[in-house]
Amino acid sequence: MRISTLKNILYGLLLACAVLLVGCAPDPYQTISTSIQVSYREDDFSPRQWKVPSGQEIDLTLDNSTPVTRAWILMARPVEVPLQNADRQWIFFEAQAPANTTQTLSFSAPNAPGEYDVILDPAGSAEDGWVGKLVVYQTSFLEEIGKFPTP
Known about the structure:
The chain is an alpha+beta fold. Helices cover 18% and strands 38% of the residues.
C-alpha cells in the first residue's frame, strides 16, 4: 500500500473521531436556569458560575453551612474587591445568607446579556477566590433556538 493511501486513511479516521467527539460535547445551554443555588463552605463556595435568561425572575437559594454570614452581591459593572463604599452604587442585587441557614430569595436578572461579577465576600479579595460569575443570555435568543429554561 502506498504512503499517500495510508495517509488518506489516517486523515479519514481522525476526521471521523473529531466528528464523534463534537457530537458528544455538552450542550452549553443546558445549565441555563431560572433557579440557581449557591453552597457555602468554610473557605469556598460552589458553583462558581451561574447561567440565567435576561430579564427573568430568578429564584436564588443560598445554602450556608458555615458559622458566619455570607453574601451574594451581583454587580452591575466590574469593581475591585474588597468593596469600597463608592462601589456600592454598582450593586445590582444583594442578599445575605446568615450562618447555618438555607434561604430562597428572588431577583430579576439583568436585561442586558453578558457576564456579571458576583461578590461572595465583600471584604475579601479576588485572589481569595470569593468572586463568581453570572452569565446572562438574551431571552429572545434562547426562545429562538428552543433552549429557554423551564422551571
